[in-house]
Amino acid sequence: MATSTPPANFQVITAPIESTTTSSQQQPKRVILRLRVDEFEGEGQSWQQHVDAITAYLAWAGRSPSEYEEGKHFAHVEPFQAPELRQTTFHVVLDIDQHLVTEPNLNDIPHEVYRVRRGTDGTL
After folding, report:
1. What's this model's pTM, rounded to 2 decimal places?
2. Is residue 121 in a domain?
3. Which of 17, 44, 47, 89 could form a disulfide with 110 if both were Cys (CB 3.0 to 4.6 A apart)?
4. In angstroms, rounded to a whole number, what is the distance separating the alpha carbons of residues 77 and 59?
């Protein structure tokens, strides 16, 4: 199965684990989006900005951006540190198709990690 090539503002940090399922089958996985603090207004504290990053990933992955709002996926957002620590990045962890996992074992769930940047037009 070939993997998609990320757009210029998505950079694969680790190679995605290849799935043995077809694209029409749902498979739970954990996606980690690494984002830059300085690319989010108000230190990224607006939940909508996090949702924008999630929906940008879903669209890139060929999934409906509305799936997050429909509850098919669950997001964890790394809290921002105190300003004096000069945090440069933060992470949004997205559990894809989390409803399919009854007893999660993170050692068995595929993980994908992406660095996400804003384009020159401000989009993720």
Report:
1. 0.71
2. no
3. 17
4. 19
Look up the domain containing 43 and give its range. Answer: 29-116
- Count the residues in the chain: 124
d(CA 65, CA 85) in angstroms, rounded, equals 33
Q: Is the distance from CB of 36 to CB of 89 less than 8 angstroms?
A: yes
Q: Is residue 23 situated within a structural domain?
A: no
**Main-chain dihedrals φ then ψ at residue 56, nearest 5 degrees:** -65, -40
Q: What is the pLDDT of residues 7-66, one digit of tens each?
A: 555 555 544 444 333 344 578 999 999 988 888 766 445 777 888 889 999 999 999 999
Query: What separation, in Å, do the N-terminal and C-terminal C-alpha atoms of the chain show?
Result: 26
User: Dihedrals φ, ψ of 59, to 5°?
Assistant: -65, -45
61 located within any domain: yes
Exposed (0-12), middle (13-18) or buried (19+): which is 63, by Cβ within 10 Å?
Answer: middle
- C-beta separation of 16 from 122 below 8 A: no
Instruction: Domain count for the chain, please give it.
Output: 1
Q: What element of type H or E holds 51?
A: helix 47-60
Residue 16 lies in a domain: no
